[in-house]
Amino acid sequence: MRKLLLSIFCALCCLFVQADLIAQYCTPTFGSGCGFGDQIESVTITNLTSSDNIENLASGCSAGDYADNTALYSLTVGAGDQVEVEVCTSPAYGQQYVVFIDFNIDGDFADPGEFFDLGNVAAGACGTFDFPIPCTLNSGVSRIRVMSDWDSTFEVLTQANECGGLTYGEAEDYELVLDIDCAFPPTATASGSVCNGDPVTVS
């Protein structure tokens, strides 16, 4: 009986440890959100290298000022690919837009190189921003977060706002599959001495 209880205890501990290791992305929150016209009207994310893209057009204001679209939209990118994000603003107010990408797939957007400021886009207009996919160490399923904030002269949206904490705005998440195959130049080592003119074999 004691061994059985010990086995159950160990199994439960393993489950809790595994659950803790599965990274969970924060849900962005806003004070007033997008109900007054501060929504992300449309998002198009394009892999310019492969011409694949995802489009979420005329989406309006999401319930709770946040939309987890990872089950609906997915884009695959590789190291060196050029990605373009196009965002369109509602006719009501201009917005500052930023993009977060979890390149190392650790469940947050807090690491260096995971934040891109697209700048301000006027009311009723669209803006685009291009950036390359770096050669990272991780391949797998990640996500990209697009976030808006009413007029950066009122409050500036920075990397510290990955979980929101702003007054007006909206956030939308999309699935990003990182298919990274980094090619490194070959290296060679030689044993013994090599003199000028001697034949050398590299394998």
What structural class results from the helix and strand content? mainly beta
Number of strands: 11
Order of helices and strands: HEEEEEEEEEEE
Helix content: under 10%
The separation of the N and C termini measures 60 Å
The mean pLDDT is 84
Low-confidence parts, pLDDT < 50 over ≥5 residues? 2-22
**Rounded to an integer, what's the Rg over CA atoms?**
23 Å
The largest pleated sheet is described as:
7 strands, mixed
Shape: elongated
User: Per DSSP, what share of the residues sits in E-state strands of 2 or more residues?
Assistant: 35-45%
How many helices in DSSP terms? 1
Notes on the protein architecture:
With 203 residues, the protein is mainly beta. It is built from 1 helix and 11 strands; from the N terminus they run H-E-E-E-E-E-E-E-E-E-E-E. The protein has one helix spanning 2-21, and strands at residues 29-33, 40-47, 53-56, 66-68, 74-77, 82-89, 95-101, 115-121, 126-132, 140-150, 164-178. Strands 1, 4, 5, 7, 8, 10 and 11 form a 7-stranded mixed beta sheet that branches. Strands 3-2-6-9 form a 4-stranded antiparallel beta sheet, with no helix packed on it. A hairpin with a 5-residue loop joins strand 2 and strand 3 (53-56). The termini are far apart.
